[in-house]
Amino acid sequence: MEFAKYLDLSVWTVSRAINGHPEVKEETRRRVLAAMDEVGYRPNPLARGLGRGRTGLIGVCLTGLDNPLLNIKTYHLQQFLRRHDRRVVLEMSFRNPENEMRVIEDFVQMRVDGIILMYSTLPTAAVTGLLRGVPCLQVDPLEPQTMPNISLDRRRAMRLLFEHLVRLEHRSFALLFGKEDPWRGPALVELARAHGMDPEQVLRYAEIADPSDNGVETGQLMAENVLRWPQRPTALITRDDQVALGAIQALRDAGVEVPRQMSVTGFDNLDLARRLHPTLTTIDQSPLRLMERAGEMLMEQIAQPKQRRGSVVTETMAPELVLGESTGPAWRG
Q1: Core vs surface per residue 308-329: b (16+ CB within 10 A) or e
Q2: Is residue 327 part of a domain?
Q3: Strand 149-152 versus strand 114-118 pairing type
Q4: Burial of 80 (0-12, 13-18, 19+ CB in 10 A)
Q5: Which residues of 241-257 are buried (b: 16+ CB within 10 A; e: fewer)?
Q6: How many domains are there within the chain?
Q7: Dist CA 184 CA 10 (whole Å)
Q8: Kind and range of the H or E element at 303?
């Protein structure tokens, strides 16, 4: 209102000029926009959205902020949404299903235009029971979903890594991730059998009593455990690039050469994986492409009539194997 008085125009005229209404003269529109820059005025996006029946807000729920790739994905998603005149409200579930359900309820109460759940631990039924018609998209859910979702083709990613190692004649593998991992372990069991191997003989988890929240430290501890085994594997398949880098450091400290005596694979293709020596053989998830498509899928849901929202749309993104210096032919020494 004060801004309208400053211009000696009605609030209605100023509002229409800001929103590009066709009935506002071009001269008036330019005058309003120039004055906004002059005085630093910016309209309240929430108030504008409520006036149109929408808030312009998108609720995004993450598991936490301890995953560098998740941070990259969130950045690309926010950039996409900003280009579409949306703002992000960020919450974290800390991998707790009850927390995640409360976050969804809060987003609905805030009248967000849509919700994105990343690495959700909830089944479809639990999510849809809370949404009240709010469009929702799952990104990389931990369980199969019967609601709109998009994820990396994880099994294909593990196949790319495993078959690369098999071509290098590796036949014994240490798994540097937890047994509770819902897709890495089961995928590797299937792959080993497909190659005529006994999973119980060729795959072994590098368990440690107290995993650290720090991926590099966890990798070091797990690799140190592997080095105590009577029969060492020729390859380490790790959870992600941070764990891989910690494992490589532990192997170096023990005088084990990577990849001559032991190969190591990562997952995520972080910038640090390409800059350290040896560079990592890893999986590129194409986070920009993934999150651009996630944003498009959510916008498509928002544009649909309420009764058509939530129908099953499942998309997967193809992973890319990035070959680095951390893998080589199996050690025969």
Answers
A1: ebbeeeeeebebebbebebbbe
A2: no
A3: unpaired
A4: buried
A5: bbbbbbbbbbbeeeebe
A6: 3
A7: 62
A8: helix 287-303
**Tell me: the pLDDT tens digits for 70-118?**
999 999 999 999 999 999 999 999 989 999 999 999 999 999 999 999 9
**H helix or E strand, kind and range, residue 175:** strand 173-176
- Same domain? For 180 and 263 the reply is yes
- Find where tokens 């631990």 sit: 121
Q: Model-level pTM?
A: 0.82
At 59, list the tokens.
């609720």
Instruction: Please state, in angstroms and as integers, the Cα–Cα distance from residue 112 to each residue in 69, 147, 216, following that order.
Output: 25, 18, 37
| Angle ∠(83,85,6) on CA atoms, nearest 5 | 120
How far apart are the C-alpha atoms of 281 and 323, rounded to whole Å?
4
Residue 23's SS3 state is coil
Block residue for tokens 């994105």: 116
Cβ atoms of 97 and 141 within 8 Å: the answer is: no
Residue 286: left if φ>0, alpha if ψ -120 to 50, beta else—which one? left
How many CB atoms neighbour CB 19 within 10 A?
13
- 28: containing domain: 2-43
Given the structure tokens 């998009």, which residue do they identify? 150
What is the CATH classification number for the domain harbouring 10? 1.10.260.40
Q: Which tens digit of pLDDT belongs to each residue from 169-198?
A: 999 999 999 999 999 999 999 999 999 999
- 254, two tokens: 């023990």
Instruction: Looking at the structure, tell me whether residues 171 and 271 fall in a common domain.
Output: yes
